[in-house]
Amino acid sequence: MKRKFLYPYILSLSLLVLLLTSSNDEFYFKVNKSFEIFGAVFKQISSSYVDDIDPQDLMDDGIEGMLKNLDPYTVFINENDGESIDIITDGSYVGVGITVGTRDSMLTIVEVQDDYSARKKGVRIGDRILKVDTANVLYSESEELRKFTKGKIGTELDMWLLRDGIEDTIKVKLRRDEIRIKNVSYSGMINDSVGYIKLERFTRNSKDEVVKAFQELKNKNKLHGLIFDLRDNPGGLLESAVSITELFIPQGSKIVSIKGRNKKEERVYYSDATPLDTTIPMAVLINSMSASASEIVAGALQDLDRAIIIGERSFGKGLVQTVFELPYNTAVKVTTSKYYTPSGRCIQRFEFHNKYKSNIEHSDTLFYTKNKRQVVESDGIEPDSVVSFDKYSGFTKFLLKKDLFFRFANVYTSKLNNLSLNLSEDKNVCMEFASYIKSKNLETEYPLNKQIYDLEKIALDEKISGKVLKKLDELKVRLKNENYNPIINHNKEIAKILDKEIKKRILSQNDMIKLNLNTDNYIILAKGLISNKMYKTILAINSIESRSH
């Protein structure tokens, strides 16, 4: 946007607002007054400040300052960020099929989508992007790559990659395609009777993909149960959440209600579509990263006693955002309301504070599902059956924090084209990993060693007696004599992480999901519950049936 044209626009808009709202209303008087002052300050700073100032940067800073005291979901979307809205709503963009991040200050590929140019040309997770065409991008921010990868569908670009374990750079020619982000990343049968659908996000196309996946499962198999996986699903469109919930509940059922500052805009969403299936036993999987639209679906199916909710408490994003278009291809996404489950629960995790409204405590009111089960209003959706997440040792957390699994997997797979599927049982891999860690000379940073060295330093600083220092020396000698090797002590959990990290470099996204189906604790629990009488017991279906007779 050429912001040098902004100030006249602001003045014109100010006059228009003044004319339209020339009432004695105190609120609108404050709006108009503030608008005039802001415009005057902007003009004066832009033209009079001692150093040259880019009006666009000044405006961006002003908007940032305006929004920073609100909630974290109210954000300004400049013209360069418009594509992110398209991805959220349409689930598509032009690119080569990679997701990048920054590792060791370098632009690094962290995901490679199936079926697109990058995967076909052998690009791998962990590759560093050195150059795109003639531009050096190695130390660029991840969002800067978009200007090189987007473009006309069918055109090509040259990309030079650095791969750990290989001295020479790797050059690949990649084709720009319309990247259709799969909302349903996988669907299939867990066993002869239980189906599984993994939904990654809620866009305009999500409902159609869920319908297709469900119908294929039902038409090709004797389907007697469904696991609907919403783990790590960050949400998306409210309308998508409503339409997907409609697929599995009776017509006319309440799904979600929206309440905000403007009472006239409060709305209740009911199911008005013919459902796919209202009786098949269902389990919905959630975790701490299931948010927003995922929580609408999980909360509705829980309150309507339509499905067992399994996993961890969800993220707790019960706020609804509305995108308002602004001039020059910009927009602002504003939190306009909160959403409530059919039983009346608000599930927002009130962790942020702003100067305009203090934190809101959850209600002590009791809430009940359709079958009169008591549910709580908490920070997110509380599952009916809890699955504990992996609790790693301090040493393993240390390795994860140092990104050592990621780095080792890059080196280990640099010369591999095929992979044994029983990798976690291959002791040679753990031995190589141990050697790799040893080569980094990190022993003094191991959590136990570090605590001993830190304690020793504190003892010296505090001039503690020599007896204490002697005991610490004895402890170090004892650990050395016992051949303290935390990699061996925690080899099971380390092997499990290595197995997953290495396979991600070689296998497709689809194959990775398929491999985990039989070892995933969430899925194992869900499969068992929806296949036996515990399903009806948890949802209090038996009590409803007995009362109806």
Care to describe what's here?
This protein has 4 domains: 3-68, no CATH class; 92-180, PDZ domain (Pdz3 Domain, Roll); 184-389, 2-enoyl-CoA Hydratase, Chain A, domain 1 (Alpha-Beta Complex), CATH 3.90.226; 394-527, no CATH class. Helix content is 39%, strand content 19%. The chain contains 20 helices and 21 strands. Strands 10-11-12-15-16-21 form a 6-stranded mixed β-sheet, sandwiched between helices. The longest helix has 23 residues, at 26-48.
Strand order of the largest sheet: 10-11-12-15-16-21
- What Rg do the Cα atoms give? 28 Å
Broad shape? globular
The parts where pLDDT drops under 50 for at least 5 residues are 1-5, 19-23
Mean pLDDT: 86
Feature tags:
Pdz3 Domain, single chain, alpha+beta, 4 domains, 549 residues, 6-stranded mixed beta sheet, 21 strands, 2-enoyl-CoA Hydratase, Chain A, domain 1, disordered N terminus, 5-stranded antiparallel beta sheet
Short description:
With 549 residues, the chain is α+β, with helices and mostly antiparallel strands.
Write the layout of secondary structure elements.
Elements: H1 6-20, H2 26-48, H3 55-67, E1 75-77, H4 82-90, E2 92-95, E3 98-103, E4 106-112, H5 117-120, E5 128-132, E6 135-136, H6 146-149, E7 156-162, E8 170-175, E9 177-180, E10 184-189, E11 194-199, H7 206-220, E12 225-229, H8 238-246, E13 254-260, E14 267-270, E15 282-286, H9 293-303, E16 308-311, E17 319-326, E18 330-340, E19 367-368, E20 374-375, E21 385-386, H10 394-401, H11 404-412, H12 427-439, H13 447-461, H14 466-481, H15 486-489, H16 491-506, H17 509-516, H18 521-529, H19 534-538, H20 541-548
Parallel strand pairs: 11-12, 12-15, 15-16, 16-21
Antiparallel strand pairs: 1-18, 2-9, 3-4, 5-6, 5-7, 7-8, 10-11, 13-14, 13-18, 17-18, 19-20
